Amino acid sequence: MRRLIAIALAGGVVWFVPQSAPRPNVLLVTIDTLRADRVGAWGYAGAHTPVLDRLAAGGARFADATAHAPLTYPAHTSILTGRYPAAIGVRLNGMDPLPPAVVTLAERFKAAGYRTGAVVASVILGRAAGLDQGFDDYDDDVPVDARATVALADLQRPATAVTDAALRWLGRQESAPWMLWVHYYDPHLPYAAPAKYRALAPNRPYDAEVAYVDAELGRLLAKVDLARTSLVVTADHGEALGDHGEPDHGFFIYDATLHVPLIVAGAGSQRRLVRDQVRSVDIAPTIAALAGLPAAQPADGESLVPLIEGKARAEAAPSLAESLYPHLHFGWAELRSVRVGEFKYIAAPEPELYDLRTDPSEKTNVIGARPGVAGRLSDALATIVKGFGPQSEAPRPQPDAATVQRLQALGYVGSLAPAPAGSGDDPKRHIADYVAYRERFNRALSLLGTGNAAEAAAVLKQLLRANVRSFEAHLYLGNAYAAMGNAEPALGEYDAASQLNPELATPHFEACKVLSGLARFPDSIARCRKGLALEPDSSYGLYTLGVVYTRAGQWKEAAAAFTRAVTLAPSEPRAHAGLAQASLRLDDLATAATHFAAMIDLKYQVPVAQFNFPAQWDPKLGIHVT
Length: 626
Known about the structure:
Blueprint: E1 5-9, E2 12-16, E3 25-31, H1 50-58, E4 60-66, H2 72-81, H3 105-111, E5 115-119, E6 137-139, H4 159-171, E7 178-184, H5 195-200, H6 205-221, E8 229-235, H7 255-258, E9 259-260, E10 262-266, E11 272-279, H8 283-290, H9 305-308, E12 319-323, H10 325-330, E13 335-340, E14 343-347, E15 352-355, H11 371-386, H12 401-409, H13 431-449, H14 453-466, H15 471-484, H16 487-500, H17 506-517, H18 521-534, H19 539-551, H20 555-568, H21 573-585, H22 589-601, E16 616-618, E17 623-625
Parallel strand pairs: 3-7, 3-8, 4-11, 5-6, 5-7
Antiparallel strand pairs: 1-2, 4-9, 4-10, 8-10, 12-13, 13-14, 14-15, 16-17
């Protein structure tokens, strides 16, 4: 193991490795929504994953790696921090930004003298989530649809664009060792692989997406010297693909969505098949150990380097997982599980126990036959969760009385007050309700995307009558009302979404746009700033604020907002257009010319509306003013 030296400076402690011990570069690749049994090296005959298979054959393949949450953002926090998501208060996408006090892997590598970079493919992992802590460069430049009616999970960029961005970053690195995290999103719904890969897996769209990412990973690795680079490839979680009745992921915590591939190859690794249970929280300690960094504290994971070296361990550490999605979205019970070797226990109103040696698909609940095992695992789970302390408790957003009264006046059933933790029906009893909800919700988004706002509103109101606590339905019903020109109902729905999910900035940005349309500029600006207080690096929010300032004739403020927006999202042409216009108004012709040129490079023509803002023609400028 490499020896590190700590030097205390005025600004803190700096770790460095003596120059006699060359430090490896580090490449972490996370493939979203990739279940292990859809990779050839894990035994899937229908796979087209030659790159992953070759890495698994030549490096350390961990046959039994488990994730801790079936959702993108919480699962990635465990990979990048070595902490259970529950331990740091992270439970859902779009909620609970990473606390600044939590130390990320990137922060540790940056302190050790590494150049750190990240390229992510989904807005779910945008800067607002907080995972950019410690990265010198954090490329979350994901284009946002101008209509802004698609679901958060659909805002992504394809693997080709991710690889291109990663290669550009690598091309800028010179002498300093580097750490790069690359995130591919394509196996996540909606499945839309290029035709070449759909032909490889006809009628298997998920497998086609996996094949596409595998090819792009190969293109990335062709430019990486693995003799000098430690490589870790894994997934954040899997995909149910209909197992246990779940079409996608996020609801249940069976191994279909928690069993993930994990490969360690390149510098510091060796060829080995490891059958021991390992965990996503073990990845950060392993990467740190490969580079010679000391073990971090606190940590829920442990380094896997001894297993890579062929050393035995006394016993596998337990693996915790949870899904609060059924509880926070629908008021049903939360789900937690603990997995130790061959047994997995799921805490639910109707608890479950599975023997994974004989039942890897978790079809037969043996809790009646093995009550002693279930009791021990239940106690172990309680001990782990108790150790997290109060900060790990589920968020309980409380709506104000006025909002509840207004929603009840609109005909909604029930209350917005969240159900207490530990209460609610068993989600197993409601999987059909959940699937029906997702189908209707997706239909509403499709209607919104094609301009059928009234029809979308009707569908969303039906959903809310059945489940008034769905903040997503409130948010998109607000969008539908806004598209129909019904400003006050739209504002009410955005308020409801904010009450139910107080950490989400999007309702504030959408309300800002509606208020701007009413020429209530001070209120609009205040609402936008409220959203930016939650997501200060939201390019969408900054663009929206810039448009409001433009409408209010506050050109200096507009230019400042657009400048930050283009800095965060340089490929967003609308922000360039706004900055060019504001610069003209300020007689800053050089800046205007720069951003008009950027618009040309991006092949952008200003449409009649940007981000749903009504437009007016400005004859002096010869462009549409939003």
